Amino acid sequence: MSKFFSKHGATLATTANDKETDGPVTDLDEGSLYLVRQAKRQIGVTSAVFLIFNSMIGTGIFATPSAIFSLSGSIGLCLFIWVAGMLIAAAGMTVYSDLAPPSLVTAVRRITSNTSTASPDSWPRDSILDTSSYLDGQGPTPWSLVNISFMLREVNRWNQRGVGLACITTAFLIHGLALKLGLRLQNLLGIIKLLIILLIVVSGWVALGGGLKIDKPHNFDHAFEGTTGSAYGVVTALYNVIWNYIGYSNANYALSETKNPVRTLKLAAPLALGSIAILYMFVNIAYFAAVPAEEIISSKRLVAASLFRNVFGTKAERALSVFVALSAFGNVLSVIFSQGRLVQELGREGILPFSRIWASNRPFNAPLTGLFEHWLVSVIIMLAPPPGYAYNFVLNVISYPLAVVNVFVAGALIHLYLNRSKWNWHHPISASMPVAIFFLFSNIYIVVRLSYHPQTDKAFTSHCLTTFTA
Prior knowledge:
Elements: H1 2-7, E1 10-13, E2 33-36, H2 45-56, H3 60-72, H4 75-113, H5 123-136, H6 140-147, H7 157-177, H8 179-208, H9 231-243, H10 261-290, H11 293-298, H12 303-312, H13 314-348, H14 355-359, H15 368-383, H16 389-418, H17 420-423, H18 433-450, H19 458-469
Antiparallel strand pairs: 1-2
Helix pairs in contact: 2-8, 2-10, 2-13, 3-4, 3-9, 4-5, 4-9, 4-10, 4-16, 4-18, 5-13, 5-16, 6-7, 6-13, 6-15, 7-8, 7-13, 7-15, 8-10, 8-12, 8-13, 9-18, 12-13, 13-15, 16-18, 16-19
């Protein structure tokens, strides 16, 4: 077995002074760090931007604004909540970027420079971050898979999930067998997604100019009328906004395949998040300019579909379903790409059993076993639960722990800042103490406030208990 994996790209870093070896590895020690020989680095700034872009923009921006508006009660408060969510996401991006280099950038240095490995004392905290990041990424894929079914005319349990299964299987095979093709397809879908969102923004400008097939809704005349007094409604709306930004750390998990990873991450992450934040605000303004407030709240269709119908007519509304499906598929491609590499990183760190298998990059120069793990988990989540309460419960159990994980990640970074000399915590990407504290307390507020529903909503509060029990 050891000979097989020594041929298939898995090597073992033993001590801080030993260099990597190309020979077979026969002994498996607990906590050993497995490395994969360097793959050809193919991710530049553009691909990293689209990796984040595709991960963050799935189907949420086409659907969730109506729920966020309904929870906030007014357009003014709704837009303020989107700004607050953007600030929390920006803080999260810098926190995760700060914590990414110890486990991933140093791994790049170990593999590419063939010098000494990271100190064994640093492995536990790296492993904690990798595990937290793994848990953080398990949610978006099943959600996007289900929402691909917007393209179906008649949705039932099995055609909806059948489309999702075909989608994630295709993404798994593309990234597992053809790395370059997968990256190019991600970039192409990212461009298509950007064009769709720009079309929505332009549609909003047309609506503001009076180019509507319905009477002008005049939603901005009384922007704060109807503002909710419910703290629970506001924090739920805020959480829904943050969910639209999930994926800001997606490029962190592929740094071992990134050209000049520190420079690329410094450029790609702020560029992607900043551009998406601006687009999200313009998209919301476009929705309010083209769709009456009552229709946004009461309609069972996507708010984006209502906009297209009101500006371009019913044919454009039907065409939107194809655009939403492409957007969701781009999201699936991006998430499974990163999660496969994160599972591989857990294998390299010796956290997973049979670490050589998870760390291997063979036979197609891609983390096939890591991609398979994410495929399997997503398929189980998608197919196993029955529709209704049980399925919503599973999705909530996936999403709510993200905020819990963020609390511990922010707390860990603050601990490292307070003990810089002990942990020798010096690297080129720094979030700063104020940003880490802001991210910590933002997520504490979300975790605490969402754990109590004023009307005892069983479908939401039960998963909170499940999270803390686990």
